[in-house]
Specification:
By secondary structure, this protein is α/β, with parallel strands linked by helices. About 30% of the residues lie in helices and about 20% in strands. It has a 7-stranded mixed beta sheet with strand order 1-3-2-6-7-8-9. A two-stranded antiparallel ribbon has the order 4-5. Helix 2 packs across helix 3 and helix 3 packs across helix 4.
Length: about 220
């Protein structure tokens, strides 16, 4: 038995709040966590929609029925451990293509924030390290810095990107031990960052988003 790959076109889905990205003062790309859908995830960011800011929620390319749910709810994933490198390459290309589409071909990152939540933190970090898109800020909210990240590429590409780690005091996924490990990785590779802490668990909190808004 031999394994093969070939590339085929497929239709992806994303949701938006606010004006068109080319007319907005700020553009936020928000990447959902494992088992979430982009449309539902985007509801957490309604407070950002003030008429000057566009919020874009791409959806992971793999949708599935959530186990143990009698209502057969559907979620999406950015990748799994199965054929993971192919999935990573696919979503980097997908997000780059979406960025170019909504930004009118502009990729300089001016006014752009990329926020990843939970599984979406690894997606966001890999995208801005390996892809063509740029951002002024990268917010990793409730998720790890991926240990297999190309840190040399990240240091080079994030030279003008503010990196913010967001962690809740009761987040069972991002414990103090995991956060300390991420900090050590970033310091070891010379990548600047700051931490935003809040009282709460593994959740997107409106008050935190308010603190993260640019004034």
């Amino acid at each position: 038995m031999q394994e093969h790959h070939f590339t085929t076109a497929r239709t992806s889905r994303y949701f938006t709040l606010g004006p068109s990205a080319t007319a907005a003062r700020e553009v936020w790309f928000v990447l959902h966590g494992y088992g979430q859908l982009a449309g539902r995830f985007l509801r957490h960011f309604e407070s950002l929609d003030d008429g000057t800011r566009t919020v874009i929620a791409p959806e992971g390319l793999s949708r599935f029925y959530l186990e143990g749910r009698q209502d057969r709810n559907v979620g999406a994933s950015w990748m799994t451990r199965e054929d993971r490198l192919t999935d990573i390459a696919d979503y980097v290309r997908y997000l780059d293509a979406l960025y170019g589409e909504v930004m009118g071909g502009r990729r300089d990152g001016a006014g752009v924030t990329v926020l990843g939540f939970s599984q979406g933190t690894a997606t966001a970090a890999r995208w801005l390290a390996a892809g063509a898109a740029r951002a002024e800020r990268l917010i990793l909210y409730g998720g790890e810095v991926p240990p297999d990240l190309d840190f040399a590429a990240a240091r080079e590409r994030w030279g003008r990107t503010e990196l913010i780690l967001v962690a809740g005091s009761r987040d069972t996924y991002i414990t103090p031990k995991i956060l300390a490990r991420d900090e050590d990785r970033l310091r070891t590779h010379g990548i600047a960052y700051r931490i935003e802490r809040f009282e709460g668990g593994h959740e997107v909190v409106p008050d935190v988003l308010q603190r993260l808004q640019r004034t």
